[in-house]
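The data layer described in this paper is built around a simple, fixed record for each protein. Because each token names a local backbone shape, the row as a whole describes the fold. We quote a single record here, exactly as it is kept in our systems:

***
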Amino acid sequence: MDIVQFTEIAMLVSFGASWPFNIMKSYRSRTAKGKSVQFEIIVEIGYTIGLIGKFITFHNTGVLAYSVWFYFADIAMVLIDMGLYFRNIRLDKIRDARLEENANNEENAEAQAA
């Protein structure tokens, strides 16, 4: 492994180290509020372009860079977080519908009491 591969892997590990924390936050918060799926899509595109470059190099040289596995790991973590984003949107809709129903019930109860 040369210095170029080492620095690329270090970059991917640095970026990748943040995703488990983001995944846990998405899982525990159970809300999509404040989350940007557009950002995650852009990150996925960037990782995919980098991965395509590695496969082009492999096709031309026959050498598969070690960094490919780190790209796969980072892509997988972003996809997991995106899945949680869509789960959390669904949970937000359910929670918002319940809040609206409760507010309507309270208004009806107040109207009947008056």
The helical segments are 3-29, 37-61, 67-113. The chain has one domain: 3-113. Residues 3-113 form one domain.
